[in-house]
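#lab-general

N.A. 3:47 PM
ok so I finally got the sequence cleaned up, no stray characters, all 256 residues accounted for. can someone with queue access submit it? mine expired

B.Y. 3:52 PM
send it over

N.A. 3:53 PM
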Amino acid sequence: MAVVRGAVLITGLSRSGSIGYAIAKKMIELGRDVVAVGSFVYDARVDREPDDLFMDTLVTVSDTTSGSFRYFDIDLAQPNSVDQLFVELNKLSLTVTDLILSHCESVDSDILTTTVESFDRHYSVNVRASWLLVRDTVIYRNDEFGEIIITALTSDHTAFNLPYGSSKGALDRVVLAAADEFSNIGLRANVVNPGPVDTGWITDDSLRCRIVDSTPLGRVGVPGDVANVIAFLHSKDGGWINRQLIYSNGGFHNFN
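B.Y. 4:20 PM
back already:
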């Protein structure tokens, strides 16, 4: 009989500059078994340059630690994608002990220009898929591994980014509800708002200056900043933090 191993499931990893990549690398360095989920289909749809080298890099990192790395390319807009993922993890004798929701659908549009298709897709990916990931993490849990830790990344952005921002608000409620509904099994759940993080999207110097001017610590956040906070929340030292929406953004205040 195969030995079941606990794993960290991280969504939103399909390129080396992403927050998900930084979190995965940090967790592997800490000796954790990491399962990452990304979508090359999404990256192509939003005109991001293809990047598949990150997988080799993370495998190389895992070879120098006691951790491991596996990657699944999944379209979270499809309703059955999450169930299929957990079936595969079950076949691999992996149980999710830590769930980190770093994925998102993010296509800018305002109240007047948002289409019904775009609105529905944002909620399918950012809310429905997140709910299903939380649900299946609980359904497939293995009692031998004790508590489950869940962290989701959120945003305050709403104006001119309506479907993204409003769906992130709904995501918050799903994740924080889990802390109450599954307290009997020792589940901890938090939401982190990292503010603007430079993952390659800040290409305009004036925008960068506005962000820096709106951040008391005087710089733009980087993926490693987020990874450090996540690592703390998923450690024993972070064990008393639960059901919180945490701002870890250098003091950034919205300039909209």
